């Protein structure tokens, strides 16, 4: 989920001779509508491959209102639903929320719907989550909790994900983002599906809305918990991506 935030504009005006220099009040941030398309060598979500360790195409749209409210939709090709016996090859995320700041601390409260149209799994893979995030300097802490079953796991209502991510500007258009997350899957029979994930992502702004990324991503998921055939979908690997925002 990525947003474009319009900068505040400061205007300085000089009065006529003999008058003091005066600074105008900051202009209100503008609302924005943005789009993005891209591709990755492997679609990893919370460290687990959603595309069977294969490439995926992705894209989305975001509206950010100047009041702080936002809405968005994002989609990616996937393979795990069909691998689980369902009938869907697309994930569509629909989300909305409110961002605001108090002093130097940013807050984000919202709702996210993961939609796998026609997935036919029982329980359904469709998932709803509520989330809240706090940003202080380069560090963001985010907590998500499912309001029903999580991604088709039976009796998993109330499953949680805690996400700690930092973003550092290295200069020259480069950013470095270390990440650590903990997915807890509720339910008596679901304990083996809880795990910790990690990532280290290097991003490069190529200009004109184009960005490239390379990430080392992995998990400590129990062997045999997230698999397709002999493929361990949570094993450590390198993922590269290219995205165009406009």
What does this structure look like?
The protein is an all-beta fold and 246 residues long. The chain has one helix and 19 strands. A twelve-stranded antiparallel β-barrel has the order 3-6-7-8-9-10-11-12-14-15-16-19. Strands 1-2 form a two-stranded antiparallel sheet. The model is unreliable at 1-25 (pLDDT under 50).
The largest sheet is:
12 strands, antiparallel, barrel
Round the mean pLDDT to the nearest integer and report it: 91
Placed side by side, the strands forming the largest sheet appear as 3-6-7-8-9-10-11-12-14-15-16-19
| Gap between N and C termini | 15 Å
- Form type: globular
Structure class? mainly beta
**Weakly predicted, low-confidence segments:** 1-25
| H/E series | EEEEEEEHEEEEEEEEEEEE
Question: What would a concise description of this structure say?
Answer:
With about 250 residues, the chain is mainly β. The protein is about 0% helix and about 55% strand. The two termini are about 15 Å apart.
């Amino acid at each position: 989920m990525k947003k474009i935030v319009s900068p505040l504009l400061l205007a300085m005006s000089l009065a006529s001779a003999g008058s003091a220099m005066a600074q105008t009040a900051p202009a209100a941030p503008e609302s924005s509508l943005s789009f993005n398309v891209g591709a990755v060598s492997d679609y990893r979500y919370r460290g687990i491959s959603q595309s069977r360790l294969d490439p995926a195409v992705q894209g989305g749209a975001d509206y950010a209102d100047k009041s702080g409210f936002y809405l968005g939709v994002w989609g990616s090709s996937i393979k795990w639903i069909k691998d689980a016996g369902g009938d869907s090859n697309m994930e569509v995320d629909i989300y909305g929320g409110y961002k605001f700041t108090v002093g130097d601390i940013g807050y984000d409260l919202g709702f996210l719907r993961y939609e796998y149209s026609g997935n036919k799994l029982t329980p359904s893979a469709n998932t709803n989550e509520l989330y809240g995030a706090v940003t202080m300097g380069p560090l963001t802490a985010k907590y998500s909790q499912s309001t029903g079953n999580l991604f088709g796991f039976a009796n998993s209502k109330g499953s949680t994900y805690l996400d700690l991510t930092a973003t550092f500007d290295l200069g020259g258009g480069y950013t470095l983002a270390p990440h650590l997350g903990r997915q807890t899957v509720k339910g008596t029979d679901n304990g083996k599906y809880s795990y910790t994930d990690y990532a280290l992502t290097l991003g490069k702004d190529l200009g004109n809305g184009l960005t490239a990324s390379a990430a080392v991503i992995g998990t400590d998921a129990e062997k045999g918990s997230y698999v397709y055939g002999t493929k361990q979908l949570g094993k450590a690997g390198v993922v590269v991506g290219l995205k165009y925002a406009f």
